[in-house]
Amino acid sequence: MLSYVLKNNFMSYEQAIAWAYAQYTDQGIDPFIEKLSLASDVAEMIEFISNTYQVYGEPSNEFLAGEAAKAYSEEKLSLYAAISRILFDLDLELPEEERQELYIAEDYFGWHDSAESQALVHAMPLFDKYRPIYERAVAKFSI
Asked: Rounded to two decimals, what is the model's pTM?
């Protein structure tokens, strides 16, 4: 998760170092975090994480859907953009019934007079389900 957060610039080098130092306790620190805090830049941190844990893939579909839902809730993405990101850009393999709800929501745009309000009925239950997955995962890094 930390690798994804760093790759996507959700956390700066300075924030990552501050997070690493915040992990220090009277009992010491995890050797991995200690080594991570010695990195000279974000690229070195990402490389260290990848080499240590063989992290080369993407986060789970649920996490990525939650990321889009969070961006919508923070008004960084429009409802249509968040739905499109999940359905088309990310092409997540969500359960069929959930994808169908998002397809229905997406279909309202472009022809219905109150597309946003109609689409919300179909999209929000999924956004509400997946947003907390993303929020819990990134909360560990205080971003």
From this structure: 0.69
| Token pair for 43 | 């690229």
Structure tokens at 91: 């092409």
Backbone angles phi, psi at 28, to 5 degrees: 110, -155
CB 42 within 8 A of CB 13: yes
Distance between CA atoms of 1 and 16, rounded to whole angstroms? 13
Q: What is the mean pLDDT of each run of 10 residues along the chain (143 residues)?
A: 80 87 82 85 84 67 92 96 93 90 94 92 96 87 60
Measure Cα distances from 61 to 12, 38, 43 in Å.
Answer: 24, 32, 25
Backbone angles phi, psi at 25, to 5 degrees: -130, 180
Q: Name the one residue in this structure whose structure tokens are 């998002």.
A: 102
What the block records as the tokens of 105 is 């929501």
Q: What angle do CA 58, 60, 62 make, to 5 degrees?
A: 140
